[in-house]
Design the sequence.
């Protein structure tokens, strides 16, 4: 017993020593950019010889927002920025504004598991809404067949797979469906988690979970950040955009959707784009950061704050080169400038850390 | 009464049914063990024990941080639970007339049956929220909540196995009661007390639910109890519900390692109490 | 063991009195920790869920069927409560025959060498982590049931009796039935262990008397032993029920997590047999970290409070029965 105790004390002392040299940052949130975030942080740890270690847990955008407000994490990540009400609440409760810093562009695609099909299916917004409302129950439904005249659809029942956790991917997906289907807007609406109406639905945790269920289940349809589909070779469909074209999510079509004027705080919805080549369910993903870092209980020292701001700058500049190999879009230059301007506003105990590091 | 032959036949049918039922009861466990062994062994490699997580979609990496985390969380949890658990066991066994005993026994049993996830919720409310962050400590506390009633119960029952004559001998020599308990009864029951601790460990080590929102998880090796910490069950769960084949492989490996840990502790417990009962 | 005795000097009266007093106080205070923990569990869960319980009312929250975090921000526990009770009782029912058969076999029929193995397997089964059952459920059981039971049954029904399709539900493999099968396998050891104890506690005379009357082995069991062991077996069954109610991870991994229920006489009372369902612990595990609004978080903790109430009653009953019938004395 004494031995155990001694070991425990020694471990505690050791870890105290170790943490004096390394900065541990904790983040939580969106699963949508999880693969790219994990890549960033892995590369950044290598770049700093393990001095800056970021522990990011992909618990969903809703969770990211929640933990950010609860201040249990250094930063959150979310695919939908805070809304006006949330921004005002945060300012009122903490005395600091929240910044929504875009760092990556992604797309949400309808993923499905239909053995034997070789080319991607075509979907329209209304058909997707009907499938996710439970109005369309089997794959050989005439509405789907009409969009895919040369495909032999199986009579399999559809399993609608949705996120059981609060999710920015869900927000982007339901934001799109609300824009294209009045029935959806009225019955379900948009949100991080919504009251799914389809009786043939299955809930799963995270983008990982939805992709996992779709992969395991013949007849399933879900919605995923495109990277999850590509990495796991899950089939995903083309979606008809506002201009009437069936567009498959890829780097050019995502970039086309992001080619819009950006407001100063970078909060914007890219869904149902008017761009003729744009993919209609694209979105930025945002890092959630307090403008005054000291307002966040999670920050314990200036060294942490400094390391964090340096990391942010790296992510929206040099780190961007890791986006495209993982099928995420790079930030367009306008968005990159906006992101840097937002980072420049960051302070710690009154010190303009952001200005120092971004250099403007 | 029916004829003798009919009664014999009935007896045979019942034996067959009992055998069938026993086989049915054992079937899931055997299947589970079989799959865990096959899938686990083909998935285990050296990296699993020495490397930490790789970004999703990249092959390789391991669960070193989760293995270390599980050991720390359970070790600290046990240290936290021991004083309370042993004290309750002593009270129940050595002071049978104590007025606290009836409610203590009932509440301890009830606590033992309480869903582990509720104990995680309590640790979240008591520690994560006030401290403003997920931490290994909160996870260890949640695990301690699970171990507590198990320790109390097992301590009570092994202390009761110590013959009363030992206590009488000590008291007869003029020793105070507390000295008799600590110097005579406890050493005599040492192996049993250790077994109880192993039992508590093996029950807590496999729990994921109470760690989800306390210890939280970590992709790096983390030894600081005030930081989020990883554990095998949570990592297994995260990997099992992911779409990545390589993560599925590692989840099976984690399952095998967990099972091995539990079989090992239970064998150790049997060895500690060998030749008794 | 004798060494400490020899070293002792004759203790003073002060040392004896004070030492004993202090010791009892310390031990009592520490033991009170367990009492405080059990009561604190309920208290803090109530406190955490108070916002939801106040807003929807104790019964309103209990019977509310909506769980809508987005549009209406309205929450109700009914689908989760019913899901928990249905899965647990069905699993209990499914586990009864194998669990009690194994107990009888181990206690009366099995050769001695096999008894040791069965007992060890039973103990091991109770210790297998929930997530390991879960991963087996996802990758082995769910696909097996889907291919060999759900899909064939679904396709047959679609052709011959489309009317009852909604009661079968979507055959994805993740759902009510899969969860029940997993749960049943998980709770077998709890019933078996206590039932085995109860049967072995039946006095030898009882058995011998029945044999002397010329009874067959089964008749001895049926007429002389089982009636005697009934209480202990019941204790095991209730204990198993308590375990099933609180089981979280394995269920969350295979049940499909959907709160849409079927109506019976106009009241939502059932889940489709093969289709997805949900339980209180699994929704807490899945949504707790991710809940955005305060009311959503509070509703989840309130669910925890209701689960606490149900589990408290069941476990209280189990511990009462265990104490009355004196089974499970040696196990924790």
Sequence:
């Amino acid at each position: 017993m004494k031995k155990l105790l001694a070991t425990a004390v020694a471990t505690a002392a050791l870890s105290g020593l170790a943490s004096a040299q390394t900065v541990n940052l904790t983040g939580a949130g969106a699963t949508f950019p999880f693969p790219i975030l994990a890549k960033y942080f892995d590369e950044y740890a290598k770049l700093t010889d393990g001095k800056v270690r970021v522990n990011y847990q992909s618990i969903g955008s809703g969770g990211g927002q929640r933990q950010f407000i609860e201040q249990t994490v250094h930063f959150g990540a979310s695919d939908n920025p805070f809304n006006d009400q949330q921004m005002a609440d945060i300012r009122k409760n903490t005395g600091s504004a929240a910044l929504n810093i875009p760092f990556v562009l992604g797309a949400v695609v309808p993923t499905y598991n239909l053995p034997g099909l070789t080319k991607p299916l075509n979907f329209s917004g209304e058909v997707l809404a009907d499938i996710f409302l439970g109005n369309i129950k089997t794959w050989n439904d005439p509405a789907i067949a009409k969009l895919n005249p040369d495909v032999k659809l199986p009579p399999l029942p559809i399993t609608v797979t949705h996120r059981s956790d609060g999710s920015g991917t869900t927000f982007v997906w339901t934001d799109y469906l609300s824009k294209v289907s009045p029935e959806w807007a009225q019955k379900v609406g948009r949100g991080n988690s919504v009251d799914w109406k389809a009786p043939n639905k299955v809930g799963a945790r995270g983008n990982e979970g939805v992709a996992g269920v779709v992969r395991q289940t013949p007849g399933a349809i879900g919605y995923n950040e495109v990277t999850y589909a590509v990495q796991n070779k899950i089939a995903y469909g083309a979606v008809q955009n506002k201009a009437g074209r069936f567009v498959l999510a890829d780097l050019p079509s995502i970039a086309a959707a992001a080619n819009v004027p950006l407001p100063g705080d970078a909060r914007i919805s890219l869904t149902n784009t008017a761009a003729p080549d744009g993919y209609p369910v694209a979105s930025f993903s945002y890092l959630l950061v307090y403008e005054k870092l000291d307002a966040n209980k999670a920050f314990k020292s200036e060294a942490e704050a400094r390391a964090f701001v340096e990391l942010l700058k790296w992510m929206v500049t040099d780190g961007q080169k890791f986006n495209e190999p993982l099928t995420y879009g790079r930030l367009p230059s306008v968005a990159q400038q906006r992101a840097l301007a937002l980072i420049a506003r960051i302070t710690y105990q009154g010190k303009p850390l952001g200005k120092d590091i971004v250099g403007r | 009464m029916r004829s003798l032959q009919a009664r014999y036949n009935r007896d045979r049918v019942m034996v067959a049914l009992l055998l069938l039922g026993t086989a049915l009861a054992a079937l899931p466990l055997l299947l589970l063990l079989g799959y865990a062994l096959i899938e686990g062994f083909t998935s285990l490699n050296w990296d699993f024990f020495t490397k930490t997580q790789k970004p999703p979609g990249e092959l390789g990496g391991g669960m070193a941080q989760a293995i270390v985390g599980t050991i720390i969380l359970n070790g600290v949890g046990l240290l936290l639970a021991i004083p309370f658990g042993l004290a309750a066991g002593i009270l129940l066994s050595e002071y049978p007339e104590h007025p606290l005993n009836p409610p203590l026994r009932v509440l301890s049993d009830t606590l033992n049956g309480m869903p582990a996830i509720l104990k995680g919720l309590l640790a979240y409310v008591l520690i994560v929220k006030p401290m403003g962050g997920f931490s290994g400590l909160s996870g260890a506390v949640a695990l301690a909540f699970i171990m507590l009633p198990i320790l109390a119960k097992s301590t009570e029952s092994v202390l009761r196995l110590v013959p009363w004559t030992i206590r009488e001998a000590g008291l007869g020599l003029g020793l105070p009661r507390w000295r008799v308990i600590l110097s005579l009864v406890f050493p005599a029951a040492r192996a049993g007390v250790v077994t109880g601790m192993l039992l508590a460990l093996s029950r807590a080590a496999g729990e994921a639910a109470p760690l989800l929102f306390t210890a939280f998880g970590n992709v790096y090796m983390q030894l600081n109890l005030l930081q989020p910490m990883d554990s095998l069950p949570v990592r297994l769960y995260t990997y099992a519900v992911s779409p990545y084949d390589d993560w599925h492989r590692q989840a099976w490996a984690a399952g095998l390692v967990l099972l091995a840990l539990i079989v090992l502790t239970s064998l150790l417990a049997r060895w500690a109490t060998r030749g008794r009962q | 063991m004798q060494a400490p005795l020899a070293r002792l000097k004759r203790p003073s009266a002060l040392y004896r009195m004070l030492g004993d007093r202090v010791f009892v106080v310390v031990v009592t205070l520490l033991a009170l920790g367990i009492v405080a923990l059990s009561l604190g569990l309920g208290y803090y869960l109530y406190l955490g869920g108070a916002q939801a319980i106040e807003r929807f009312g104790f019964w309103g929250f209990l019977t509310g069927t909506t769980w809508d975090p987005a549009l209406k921000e309205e929450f109700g526990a009914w689908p989760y409560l019913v899901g928990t009770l249905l899965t647990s009782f069905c699993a209990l029912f499914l586990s009864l025959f194998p669990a009690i058969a194994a107990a009888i076999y181990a206690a009366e029929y099995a050769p001695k060498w096999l008894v040791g193995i069965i007992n060890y397997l039973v103990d091991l089964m109770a210790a297998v982590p929930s997530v390991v059952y879960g991963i087996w459920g996802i990758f082995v059981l769910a696909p097996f049931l889907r291919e060999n039971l759900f899909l064939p049954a679904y396709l047959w029904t679609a052709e011959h009796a489309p009317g009852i399709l909604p009661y079968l539900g979507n055959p994805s493999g993740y759902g009510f039935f899969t969860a029940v099968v997993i749960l049943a396998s998980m709770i077998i050891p709890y019933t078996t262990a206590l039932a085995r104890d109860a049967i072995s506690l039946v006095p030898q005379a009882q058995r011998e008397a029945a044999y002397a009357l010329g009874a067959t082995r089964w008749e001895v069991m049926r007429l002389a032993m089982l009636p005697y062991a009934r209480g202990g077996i019941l204790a095991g069954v209730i204990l198993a029920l308590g375990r099933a109610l609180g089981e979280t991870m394995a269920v969350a991994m295979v049940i499909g997590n959907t709160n849409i229920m079927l109506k019976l006489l106009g009241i939502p009372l059932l889940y489709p047999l093969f289709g997805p369902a949900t339980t209180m612990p699994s929704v807490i595990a899945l949504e707790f970290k991710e809940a955005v609004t305060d009311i959503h978080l509070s509703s989840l903790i309130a669910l925890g409070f209701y689960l606490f109430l149900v589990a408290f009653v069941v476990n209280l009953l189990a511990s009462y029965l265990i104490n009355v019938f004196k089974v499970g004395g040696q196990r924790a």
